[in-house]
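Q&A log
Question type: sequence-to-structure
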Amino acid sequence: MKKSYEEVLNRAVLILMAIAAQGATITYKDLALLLGLPITGLNCGQRSELQRLLDLLIVIGIKRKLPLLPLIVVRRDTGQPGQGIEPVLRALGIATEADLADPVERAKLVKVEQQRAYYYCQHAANDNRYVIQAVGG
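Response status: OK
Response body:
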């Protein structure tokens, strides 16, 4: 039976919150596998299903004034989130173009935001503001 988008999204939230509560990260590939999403398209410049899901979680986090939970999802080769997060970091005033051009500074800024996600998940056991309610159900 195929799961609804809301079910996959909420499962992603639960997985990410559990990982963040441990102060850890997860790779894009490992998260896709846990969610049963295709891993094709993760590295070819196209927006994969997983990347679209993470984009939506970023929007939810921003609208609900929550830490950016998707920043704990990282590339296997760098241990850092992909470049897709850079426009968000700039738009929120977290980073400048110069910050993002410097790999050391980028890593520091990402680490700060990851720490915010870790703290939130370690102390928000009953906070369900990331959970999506199905429309009409």
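Response note: The longest strand covers residues 26-27.
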